[in-house]
Amino acid sequence: MTDEMIDVKVKNQYGKVLDAKALLHEGAKEIDPSRRIVQQVEYIMVDGEIIRPSIELLFNSERNDCIYRIMEHDSLAALLKTAPQ
């Protein structure tokens, strides 16, 4: 697993947008950059809680009733596209 955490924005089912961190799968920068960011995330961290994705690629908190999804951002896609191959 890579040690690189990236900053992401997540949105919960109530429409609230929060800052979070995401850990990319090992080798994510070498994977096809056309893949969605959420497909390359090992887990997200929201308010200190590590949340792993469900099969639907949503992140269900065990601490509260929130379900998060990663918002796609061009800057994240650019991070993956500009990584050395």
Protein described:
- With 85 residues, this protein is mostly beta strands.
- The chain has one domain (5-81).
- The protein contains 1 helix and 6 strands, in the order E-E-E-E-E-E-H.
- It has one helix at 74-81, and strands at residues 5-12, 17-24, 41-46, 49-51, 59-60, 67-70.
- A 6-stranded antiparallel sheet has the order 4-3-2-1-6-5, with no helix packed on it.
- It is globular, with a radius of gyration of 12 Å.
Total beta strands: 6
Main pleated sheet? 6 strands, antiparallel
Summarize the helix and strand pattern as letters.
EEEEEEH
User: Unreliable segments (pLDDT under 50, ≥5 consecutive)?
Assistant: none
Beta-strand fraction estimate: 35-45%
Cα radius of gyration in angstroms: 12 Å
Overall shape: it is: globular
Helix content: under 10%
Estimate the mean pLDDT confidence. 81
Distance between the termini: 17 Å
Number of helices: 1
Strand order of the largest sheet: 4-3-2-1-6-5
Number of domains: 1
Q: Report the structural category.
A: mainly beta
